[in-house]
Amino acid sequence: MDAILRAINEPETIRVVAAITSEAVREACRRQRARGIAAVAIGRGLTAGVLLATLAKQDKERLRIQLAGDGPAGNLLIDAHGDGRVRACLEHEVEGDEADLAGARPSTARGCGKNVISTARWRVVVLEQQALARYAAPLRALAAPAATK
Question: What does pTM read for this prediction?
């Protein structure tokens, strides 16, 4: 069973977050048929997403992490929500042997290559039809003069 543990000390100077993500990682790897280095990359990405999403102030906030790699695996995209939901997608399947996983901490460098990491965080807002119309009207007015030129 996956779990997230959050703790803070009494004077609120130290915050601790721990996560067990075995089931989520196993399911993500099963759905994407990921093995070897690809499975390690997905697992690390999912766990990072869950840990960073715990910093959300509300459950409706969402975090996206993109690892743009130049290796054969390509990009790794992670979406994590403040309520603990998380998903990951690896751009390409990576063929690897079990020798890649040797050692205490397997390296994902051969599969992922050099990465550029980008993150985005936003809050999901549900607008009713009337509120949406109220926000859309000024945008249409701004766009109309540009369209007639």
Answer: 0.71
